[in-house]
Structure prediction request, 404 residues.
Amino acid sequence: MQGEGLLRVTGDDGERTDAARNRRLLLDAAAEIVAACGPDRLTTDAVARRAGVGKGTVFRRFGSRAGLLHALADEAGRSFQQAFMAGPPPLGPGAAPLERLIAFGEASIGRMLLDGQILRAAEQRGGPDPEHPTQQLIRLHLAMLLRELEVQDPELASYQLAAFLNAGLLLHLQEHRGMSDARLAASWRVLVVGLAAARGRA
Amino acid sequence: MQGEGLLRVTGDDGERTDAARNRRLLLDAAAEIVAACGPDRLTTDAVARRAGVGKGTVFRRFGSRAGLLHALADEAGRSFQQAFMAGPPPLGPGAAPLERLIAFGEASIGRMLLDGQILRAAEQRGGPDPEHPTQQLIRLHLAMLLRELEVQDPELASYQLAAFLNAGLLLHLQEHRGMSDARLAASWRVLVVGLAAARGRA
Prediction:
């Protein structure tokens, strides 16, 4: 029985390694398709073909096209999270809270060029879900900095700031209103400097 | 020919009167259903039954359930527009721009109780469309007040403020985060006082 158990564990490990390798293969293929043709061209067929696996493997790993998009968005989010939680200042720890807030907005705006299409496509129908774990993490981070700045009601202020940084809006402003990253970043700066300055005034 | 033309015009007028009456009847029936049961219960069948007309009449006037929801949202928006563009101060003209901005946020938050369900249901899949005429009008109004306050880049700042006032987010904060109107209004006040204070600082 114990031997069988050990064998099963080894089998599982092999399966897990295969699964991880397939997952990586599929995510890379999907990212390449999105980068080359945009998220509209991302179909489970196209990903399976590019990765050289059966379509069933895509469904087994991600459930659906939407699942694949969410996995891509999560992956894009993870490196961003790493940067603002543990990366070098001013985005990461070590800089003053206002500097970190400003850097957070600039980084959020800057990553739209690379990740915006995926983030927008992965956003739920009816707009971004404020309780998605990634959104929660972003708000926790913003609220922490706002609290350090002694902004009134940092929790609610974090919703206000996150509402402006959502992918749908930033991409809309960049693509349809022709607003540059520099202009978006300048306006973000006014907003957070203003919030910091409003402390005790309102 | 002329007589026929005149007759046709008279016919059109009669039709227009009928159309307007039917439209009113259907919108009132729809508003009653939403108020009593929420927008999920708003079906074209239910509206036709309550208004005592055929289902075809609903489709002829509004095209679909979505068309009916948009018409309801437009109607709710129109009285709000009337209030902030031509109503009494501080929401309407006559108050100082900062007072008007504060009043605008308070009124937007307050109307969610009545109109929020309709506004949210009418919002496009993928979130609110920033170029919907109602959204454009709201931003023009915000930008005008921000310009009077000499806020940097009033156009972009109007997108930032409008992003926080969208129905989906306000309802989420009220319903799922249990935030009171007073709390939402206080945070709005900090935001706009901050923007006004940031003038020339950032």
